[in-house]
Design brief:
By secondary structure, this protein is α/β, with parallel strands linked by helices. The protein is built from 13 helices and 10 strands.
């Protein structure tokens, strides 16, 4: 091989090496090597840029939707899981960084599930110290006189998530009232909302379908609820918690493996694998649903036993309690 041919080969391979080197850099800062591929955008970015875009997106959602006002008392629904732990951490950071002027509190519900909630509450108690946020724990036993363990013994595993959901929502409202807060924020993420849209379609639940994508609900009630993670992917929340080394509890509720929502969750995950934007597309579809004026909406009543919203004269669980 001649010297000229050797030089030609070097010149030909050089641009390829340069291109390969560029592909190994973060697509945002173009300085550091990427640590992850964002599930939402498929961008290759470094940890520091991921923190920035993750937090900035949540800040933008808060500002654009005017979720808070300076001076408000805000309760963070804290279960000890990844969503509520990241929410508590990020909201604390944004409150300090952008001077929201909020008084933040942690609010936890003890459903009385041995081997699950008792362990997760220990995580919340550590978060109380780590983030410097006051904690209030409200229990089913104190509010209703029974625990979820006792409820499951009475009714079995079927439909127990439905019962728990009703009483958990009520417990959060009562806990928020005890804290005298202006709003309650929950860690419901984009995956959760997409699942709810799908579930309401499958159930034909027009009433819930019309409001399930709202970022703030209950504005006509005593305590509005907000979802700052409405457009935040679950996978990105997990990545953020992992890279930040946040302290959270990851065990699934022992009574939920056969919940109907689980099937919708698996379907959403399959769609996401084929098309990452599927989650946001489902949420946007839910936002664009319109209910015809002529449609007769179901009437909501009040449970004569506990005074909370119910589709029947008395919550189903109270009816069962009377039978037993």
């Amino acid at each position: 091989m001649s010297g000229e041919e050797g030089n030609d080969n070097k010149e030909t391979s050089s641009p390829q090496k340069t291109t390969a080197k560029k592909q190994q850099l973060c697509c945002i800062c173009n300085q550091k090597r990427p640590a992850l591929k964002r599930p939402k955008t498929l961008e290759q970015i470094c940890k520091e840029c991921f923190y920035d875009v993750f937090e900035e997106e949540i800040h933008r959602v808060i500002v654009e939707n005017r979720l808070f006002k300076a001076g408000e008392r805000i309760a963070i629904g804290a279960s000890g899981g990844k969503d509520s732990t990241v929410l508590a951490y990020v909201l604390s950071e944004l409150n300090r960084r952008h001077n929201y002027g909020l008084d933040l509190f942690l609010l936890s519900i003890d459903e009385g599930i041995t081997g699950y909630r008792d362990d997760s509450l220990e995580t919340v108690k550590r978060n109380e110290i780590q983030y410097g946020l006051p904690l209030k724990v409200v229990s089913y036993k104190d509010l209703y006189g029974w625990t979820m363990d006792e409820i499951v013994k009475m009714i079995g595993l079927k439909n127990n998530c439905t019962f728990c959901g009703v009483f958990r929502r009520q417990a959060l409202d009562r806990g928020a009232t005890l804290l005298k807060v202006d709003k309650l924020v929950t860690g419901h993420n984009a995956d959760d909302i997409a699942e709810t849209v799908l579930l309401n379609i499958l159930r034909g639940d027009i009433a819930r379908l019309g409001r399930c994508t709202a970022i703030t609900t209950g504005e006509d009630g005593p305590i509005p609820r907000c979802k700052p993670f409405k457009y935040t992917y679950e996978k990105e929340i997990v990545m953020y918690a992992y890279f930040k080394r946040l302290d959270y509890f990851s065990t699934e509720c022992i009574y939920s493996p056969n919940a109907y929502r689980g099937f919708a969750r698996e379907f959403i995950k399959d769609l996401e694998r084929m098309r990452p934007r599927a989650i946001l597309d489902i949420i946007r579809s839910g936002e664009n649903f319109r209910i015809a004026v002529s449609t007769k909406m179901p009437e909501q009543g009040i449970c004569e036993r506990c005074g909370y919203i119910s589709s029947q004269e008395m919550h189903r669980l109270y009816q069962l309690a009377v039978q037993f």
